[in-house]
Give the backbone structure.
Amino acid sequence: MVKIYTKSGDAGETSLVGGKRVSKGSQRVSLYGEVDELNSFVGLARANLANDFENCLADISFLESIQRQLFKAGALLACEKVNWPKYNLQSLDKNIVTDVESRIDNLDGKLSELTNFILPGGTVSAASLHTCRSVCRRVEREIVRSDLSVNDEIPDNLIIYLNRLSDYFFVLARYINFVAHVNELNV
């Protein structure tokens, strides 16, 4: 049996894809850690949705596809771009942005027009989606601010994808509250 702990990170270093050792405090490690955190929150939102709204199977499935794309993004960030082909790391799906936009348009078409800012919350599922939205915005800000972004080490479409994802989480949270007949609280 392989042990989960390797002790190789005990001195504050970790390995990138390919074995290069870097500080756990490096910007690259921080970025893929941020993406991993977002992925975990999406998993929580998906579990909440599956628990509370069995009739939202399409969105539960879509959240899983988001998790798979985020995992790919994390793997790409955990490897220097020059080595992506060497380690057969797959790019993000080409249609990810249009897929998210389509989901947003579909859900938003079922909702009343938003005329005020709203407080995050409502059902547990909606609240967890609002958490995904805010974490997603933070990940986007950190990636844009990073040297990796400046040095073209970011997967194609990742910033656009994160921007659309945060919108999707917002609209899905509103939709879940709508389906549950929970009124949103205006600011």
